[in-house]
Amino acid sequence: MKKTILLLLALIPIYLIGQETPQDSIPKWKKSGTISLLINQAAFSNWTSGGENNVAATLGINYDINYFKDGLSWDTKIIGAYGVNKSANSSYYKKTDDRFEINSLLGKKFNKEWSYSSFLNFKTQFGNGYIYGKDENNKETRTLTSQFFSPAYLQLGIGLYWKKSNDLWVNIAPLTGRLTMVSNNFTRNLKAEETFFGVDRGNSSLFELGASLKGFYKMEVLENVILEHYLSLYSDYLEKAKNIDVDYTLMVKMKINEYLSTHLNVQTVYDDDAIKRVQLREIFGLGLTADLNKVYSKLSGYKKLL
User: Fold this and answer.
1) Cβ neighbours of 227 (radius 10 Å)
2) How many CB atoms lie within 10 A of CB 3?
3) Where exactly are the structural domains of the chain?
4) Count of C-beta atoms within a 10 Å radius of residue 280
5) Largest CA distance in the chain
């Protein structure tokens, strides 16, 4: 039954494409993206008020693909980020960021701003996650808590898509299937009442059926100061419908010149299958940023010269 529901949700795009809307029949593609490197560093020598030498770096990719033809829109966003920190008094490199996410949304217009929609969302992490502590000898220790594809989340849903522009849209999907996937290495030794990201002992997946809301808003508040808001909400009909999963990210980009900018990323997550507390992550640093389209054009030009 669970596989049937996911299959039906996946087939919705075929139905949407088959609906006719007499509009501009010329395909329109728009691709844009950036690659950035954020760097933070602090060094101390004989500093009487104290301090700890440390260095941190985060590599990020943000790429958008937008398509429109005959009232059919297909918007895909790919986000990847990985960051590490190393301090003088720590034995390990520690993650400051770790994210891989694909959002793909297909819509078929029935008026100027509203569309029938079908969406796919997939997210996981690149590297291992750890909890750090101290042993009886005061030596730093770490315990594995997560890894690539553990957990991984796949969502498929159908609903309505309101799109003002590529910078402002909301998708409401009252029928959404969500599959949480983990390695059974994390679940085989759980206690009977324990779960790993909601997955029961001995299992490797959890299926949920519920409703989701996703939104994006990008605005320039001052010259060269851009705010991007991402919001994702999910409620499971099958169990604990009142416990709404929340994932909100605020990105502030302050451009210095074509290549230099400062970035502030703040992410707030609540998912009681993972932990029954609010999760908060904040990163701020000086960034080297490059437009991927311009990089590709320059590389193509070099190839022609060779």
Assistant:
1) 15
2) 10
3) 2-305
4) 10
5) 73
User: pTM of the full predicted structure?
Assistant: 0.85
pLDDT per residue as tens digits for the range 37-84:
988 888 887 777 777 888 999 999 999 999 998 889 999 999 999 999
2-305: CATH topology is Outer membrane phospholipase (ompla); Chain C (2.40.230)
For 77-95, the three-class secondary structure string (H helix, E strand, C coil) is EEEEEEEEEEECCCCCCEE
**Chain mean pLDDT for the chain:** 87
Which residues, at least 6 apart from 31, have a Cβ–Cβ distance to it below 8 Å? Answer: 63, 64, 65, 66, 293
pLDDT given for residue 240 in this prediction: 82
Q: Which amino acid is present at 68?
A: F
Q: What are the Cα distances from residue 182, in Å, to 129, 200, 231, 277?
A: 13, 10, 24, 21
